[in-house]
Design goal:
The chain is an alpha+beta fold. Helix content is 18%, strand content 66%.
Length: 196
């Protein structure tokens, strides 16, 4: 019993010496299409084909995100939050008139989500984990009709989430990481994090 008590005390002490905080910066692809992008693409695709115009992607920033996690007494479990930003812009061209530019479309997405992370494998230089987050997305859309010299703006708020089914991180205090899942951070995302 004494040996078990000493081993337990050593295990708790080892856990308390581990870094509890982590800050990460990530870049992801395949994000904002979930809500606005798919609906926007389908509805505008139908309208554009009937009106003879086409949207050509000019700028696709993808999603840049900052995340923070705090590891609880059980170091496999961490709670925190994610702030993400994405930007997309298109040129609208007349298909029948040699792709003459007739308009512009810009969309900005700013998302804030509380999050939880669970390490399936938790080692000092490696982790295999899953992550879930849900929160609110603020969306701003701006469209310019160059022919009519008119501008249209729309602001919406959506429920948004991130489910990273599998995540890998490697390194000591500075770690690289890669995740695959679905949500506002992206279907595929990667980045760097600092543990302290």
């Amino acid at each position: 019993m004494v040996v078990v008590a000493i081993m337990t005390a050593m295990s708790v002490n080892a856990q308390s010496n581990e870094p509890r905080h982590e800050i990460g910066l990530s870049y992801g692809l395949g994000a904002s299409a979930i809500f606005d992008g798919l609906g926007y693409g389908i509805s505008n695709g139908i309208f554009d084909s009937l009106s003879g115009v086409e949207a050509k992607t000019k700028d696709d920033l993808g999603t840049v995100a900052i995340e923070y996690f705090y590891h609880l007494n059980n170091p496999r479990i961490a709670i925190g939050g994610i702030v993400a930003y994405a930007h997309y812009s298109d040129d609208v061209v007349k298909k029948k008139d040699n792709d003459i530019k007739v308009g512009e479309r810009e969309r900005d997405y700013f998302t804030v989500m509380p999050a939880v992370k669970y390490d399936w494998v938790h080692k000092s230089h490696f982790a295999l984990y899953s992550k879930a987050a849900a929160g609110v997305m603020f969306h701003n859309s701006n469209e310019k009709d160059l022919a009519a010299n008119k501008e249209y703006e729309d602001n919406d708020t959506f429920f948004m989430y991130q489910l990273s089914f599998i995540g890998l991180e490697f390194g000591a205090k500075v770690r690289g990481f890669f995740e695959a899942g679905v949500g506002e951070q992206g279907i595929i995302l990667g980045g760097v994090k600092f543990k302290f």
